[in-house]
Design a protein that fits this description.
Elements (H helix, E strand, L loop, with lengths): L1 H23 L5 E2 L7 H17 L2 E7 L12 H24 L5 E6 L5 E6 L1 H8 L4 E6 L9 E3 L3
Parallel strand pairs: 1-6
Antiparallel strand pairs: 2-4, 2-5, 3-4, 5-6
């Protein structure tokens, strides 16, 4: 019984690490400020904005600008708690800013507790607002496929 609980915990942690690595691997990210000289990055930025315009909304994964260490590497439950609290606070700030800007076209698909990301469904205006948000590190379309899809990075 104890072994099964440990084995399940190890398996879940492995899946989480694999997901983080999968989401973190990809092509270069476009700078939303428009200062990037990379043509492919500008194309990725335009493609995601165009998709949001055509479909009215687009599902995205927002990478938050929050210090992050995989929980297995943290030394205490207090550090895990503080990291999760920081992730939740950053998510709250981003969503509050969007509401403050009148972005009614945003729907929260998933707030992740252990990694600095959240899944959103947004319209074109909200996508642009997220690109300017200081707590947003990058935006990637939430779609099935190989790593390296359309990805956008917010200004540093």
């Amino acid at each position: 019984m104890v072994w099964r609980g440990i084995q399940g915990g190890v398996w879940r942690r492995g899946v989480l690490v694999a997901c983080v690595l999968f989401l973190g691997v990809g092509a270069g990210e476009a700078n939303l400020s428009g200062t990037s000289g990379d043509v492919a990055s500008a194309d990725a930025r335009r493609a995601l904005a165009e998709r949001a315009r055509e479909m009215k909304t687009v599902r995205i994964i927002v990478q938050l600008r929050v210090p992050f260490v995989p929980e297995g590497e943290l030394k205490s439950t207090w550090q895990v708690f503080r990291q999760r609290e920081g992730i939740a606070q950053a998510q709250d700030r981003v969503l509050e800013r969007l509401r403050g800007l009148g972005c009614d076209g945003v729907r929260t698909a998933k707030r992740f507790e252990t990694v600095p990301q959240m899944g959103l469904k947004v319209d074109e205006a909200c996508l642009e607002a997220l690109g300017q948000d200081p707590d947003v590190q990058s935006i990637q379309e939430d779609a099935l496929g190989a790593p390296g899809g359309a990805s956008l990075a917010a200004p540093q």
